[in-house]
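Service request form, structural biology core

Requester: graduate student, group of Dr. S.
Request type: structure prediction, single chain
Budget code: on file
Notes: please return the result as structure tokens.

Sequence provided:
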Amino acid sequence: MAATGTMRRSFGSLAFSISKRAFSTSPSPVDANGLKSMNLFSAINHALQIALESDPRAYVFGEDVSFGGVFRCTTGLADRFGKGRVFNTPLCEQGIVGFGIGLAAMGNRAIAEIQFADYIYPAFDQIVNEAAKFRYRSGNQFNCGGLTIRAPYGAVGHGGHYHSQSPESFFCHVPGIKVVIPRSPKQAKGLLLSCIRDPNPIVFFEPKWLYRLAVEEVPEHDYMLPLSEAEVIRQGTDITLVGWGAQLAVMEQACIDAEKEGISCELIDLRTLLPWDKETVEASVRKTGRLLVSHEAPVTGGFGAEISASMVERCFLRLEAPVARVCGLDTPFPLVFEPFYMPTKNKILDAIKSTVNY
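Core staff response, request fulfilled:
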């Protein structure tokens, strides 16, 4: 455990030093419409501020959160709300989630941070055997619905096999929890507030690649976005593309290039993976007759397989080509070979053309 902790802290320092050199985190002015330019980590920070302000039962805790965390998502919260509500924990993910379950079971809003999603595995038992089953095993007499587990996930450009994994599909197999992944700052703020206030335990994966790269006009006020409701972010007629998180930006670029070649792509952000919005995806696939799913996680057993199987069951007679999947490879996440591993724009574009011309 000590070796693991050292690895995490050294990588965290690297990530922070890069962010300090390359990006400004100074506040942006609010425009006349109440919008403020924010990157994704600032939007997360603002959502946490609102959650703590609006509910005295809300607590934020995890490794290093009191000084702002590796990615600075909790910067200033301990100073503003006190270290009784925003506090560090030992380097023990099982303990972090176990504590969160107990805190939520007592009627509080427990917002637990796992420093990297790669290290959520020690807490796997607490999430799938305790949090997910708490309400069911008590016959709805007790629950830990106030638990939200935040975790940075996915590629970061230099993370390698211990800081780049996308473990969402593991949790999509577990009834009793929800799994949510935002694609942008505006989405992150609204979805996180919905998760914190939802009456079910939720795992909220944050695409670390976008923490500072994604910038958007975000409402300053308190708002929530619906869970389990996919969003069609690009209308099209020839093929449906489905994704989530940072992969949406890659897929959108592929859609733009495909349009130059006369292919009309409909792009859907799933947003919530469990329970997911089958109806929106089905309606799109029935219209286009073709489906492509893309995610960073390895292809075998990835959530794209569930989407593919469900759409074959629901739309078999409407499909004009096999469902395409453009995903990570069935290997540990590599370091120097990350560009070969990632589902890139060109890989997606090739799959679009192959599917449309099938």
